[in-house]
Amino acid sequence: MAELKATPGxxxxxxxxxxxxxxxxxxxxGGGVDGxxxxxxxxxxxxxxxIHKGCATGDAKxxxxxxxxxxxxxxxxxxxxxDGTHHEDELLASCYRHCLDLAREHGLRSxxxxxxxxxxxxFPLDRAADIAIRTVREHVDASGVERxxxxxxxxxxxxxxTHLLGNEPQTS
Length: 172
Hints:
Elements: E1 3-8, E2 18-23, H1 32-41, H2 43-52, E3 60-64, E4 72-77, H3 88-105, E5 110-113, H4 125-143, E6 147-152, H5 155-165
Parallel strand pairs: 1-6, 2-4, 2-5, 5-6
Antiparallel strand pairs: 3-4
Helix pairs in contact: 3-4, 4-5
């Protein structure tokens, strides 16, 4: 069984094989996690993202990490929260599954996820964290990933993930 843990901090500084970017459908950068990852990785990331010509909601695409500690960036497009009746849960779970599929395809052993869709996209944090953890637990063994870090940018997110994982937060 893979190790799953909540980690406080900045996902752009996490030493794992791949980090996940909470991207938009264009993959051309944005605010929040997306903007931070693009800034930290350097302009090469934008050029690599352009090749993909976008990404559908619920899917994920892969690029090199360039100037990041992580070798790879998986750009996952989470759903915008509307009211919970527009397949938001299924689309969010699909992001996590697609990232684990990419990890398997690349033979990776560690991955770091942000709280996808909980920022400007407005997905309720408790619900999103439950979907994230449940989906990863269900699919991580088939991926070959041995370590999953849910990187939490703020205290509220860290508290929710720590509670749901039933462990103490790790410092990086």
